[in-house]
Amino acid sequence: MPDLPPFVLFYLAALAAAVLPQRPRQLLMLAVPIVGGLVLLQLPADLLIRVTFMDMVLEPLRNDRLSQLFGILFHIGAFIGIVFSLHVPERSQHVAALLYAGSALGAVFAGDLLTLFVFWEMLALSSVFLIFANRTERAWSAGMRYLVIQVISGVLLLAGALILYRQNGSLGFNHIGLQGAGGVLIFIAFGIKCAFPLLHNWLTDAYPEATPTGTVFLSAFTTKVAVYALARGFAGTEALVYIGATMTCFPIFYAVIENDLRRVLAYSMINQIGFMVVGIGLGTALAMNGAIAHAFNDVIFKGLLMMSMGAVLHMTGRINGSDLGGLYKSMPVTTTLCIIGAASISAFPLFSGFVSKSMVMVAVLEEGHPVVWLALLFASAGVFHHAGIKIPFFAFFAHDSGIRTTEPPLNMLAAMGIAAILCVFIGTYPWTLYGLLPFAVDYAPFDGSHILAQIQLLVFSAAAFAWLKVSGIYPPELHSTNLDVEWLYRRLAPNWLRRSTAGLDRFRHILMQGSHRAGRGLMRQILHHYGPEGTLARSWPTGSMVLWVAVLLAASLMLYYL
Amino acid sequence: MQEKTHIFDNPKNVKRVLWALVVVCVLTIGADFVYHRHVVHPWEGLWGFYAFYGFVACVVLVLLAKEMRKLLMRGEDYYDRDA
Q1: Is the ipTM here above 0.85?
Q2: How far apart are CA A451 and CA A428, in angstroms?
Q3: What is the nearest CA distance from B38 to chain A, expressed in angstroms?
Q4: Residues sharing a CB contact under 8 Å with residue A266, sequence separation 6 or more, in sequence order
Q5: Predicted confidence band at A47 (pLDDT cuts at 50, 70, 90)?
Q6: Quick one: DSSP state of residue A465?
Q7: Residue of chain A whose Cα is closest to the Cα of B39
Q8: Are A440 and A340 within 8 A, CB to CB?
Q9: Which among A89, A187, A366, B36 is least surrounded, fewest beta carbons within 10 Å?
Q10: Phi and psi for A158 in degrees, rounded to 5?
């Protein structure tokens, strides 16, 4: 069998899923990530496929350790998402999900920037249907905003790639760095997809508006492709350390006061990506390993949390913390699985987050960034607070909302179960994951000092939550919208545009009046001079003409004699 | 049919959980007396550093977030309404 780029299987399956009836379609969808994963593992290491297209050398398949790790991760993520969404009758969602997963694979195996660009845009075009599929007014407009911002990211990437092509004569996607306009444009393009501060709002705007199953796919691919791209193109770029530290800190404030629990998870996602971005910015072997391992774990534990909230939304039709509570009584299995996800994202020892985040933390201190380290530690306490405690607490415990439901369909439970098993497996036996990382791992995760320090941090954070809650200081969950950067383009800019077009109207009115008045004045002047009574309209007598000719002739005669 | 009572319907059990948390807190911070954590940075080596930092971080986080609400919170339909 020839070496196929991994996206091909998913794209073909998407075509087939568009026509197959339900049963065979379900079987096909389950088979694709499994077969694709096996094919991927058979690909020779450091394989490179080159094609020439219009004098440009393209590399649709480059298989090195970094690509392979993300390839394996996306197959796992796709499998979990497919199992979770198996019951969904709508064909379009499945087609979109398969195309989306395929595009993510296409992007991480792209060896050149043009191929990357194509899949970069395909990610946006396919995933937006998972948002539209919710078929609400809000989902529609959030999806449109999402699409516009994603396409802008793609355009910047293309512009940057073309500038680099002119400079270097090559489209190869390797280390780029921030030198030159091309590098900066690509950095911003990656930054948009990676949800850098101020460029982040599309994520928290759109993800919570997708379908309960769609959000699971969304949380797995787009941002992780961006993390991969940063790791490939901008490792060791110091600005990323500070950008990443900001990303870990500011979203947790929003997460504390946000009511929509899927939006809480979206903010928490930016916080987790922040840790990865810091690691990539440091660029050392330990930091890169930590960042990439954390991306791997994040797809699984954030997927698990998104699935548990998707299950709650699917069963109760509600997702706001203020409307939920007490669900542990009717959804004990979902509750348990959600708590496993919460423990993993909070980096409890023996759960997956611990074995990867601690690598980044240690690297930050070793590279001499104590202030950044304090920020990340603050964010670590904060993530436990808002994702580790808040999510399970307000959904499943808190006050009893009176909602009585049942556990979600079996396929949803199975998908969450697989993710939970992976969280615990990686958390207790991280060496399989460590073996996949791009650099050799010389790091002992289960060290007494680390474990004790992390447990102290977490239990005292829990104590703070308990104290604030018991003493009534903790802010209640309220139906609300919290203003974020999106206010600029959802409120300020439209208002400004409306106001300035109103101003333009006034200006046009003044201009019209002025020109009318000027026109009338001009007409009067013309009539005055050229009208029937006007001076210039009089006929000239021939005699005066002859006189003037005589004067001119006399003058020229005089000049001649002089 | 009377619904069966669940574990946290009994306030005593909630109390028990809170007490268990207190015990765990005391145990882990007490461990700093007997176990010498090796550190990369001197701040880490301070007694109970992680415990205090975690507690203070969460309290500060929540208090600041509460203040943020005054500035940033709008009605749920804020963006749906016309300006």
Answers
A1: yes
A2: 13
A3: 6
A4: A203, A204, A207, A208, A219
A5: confident
A6: H
A7: A449
A8: no
A9: A89
A10: -65, -45
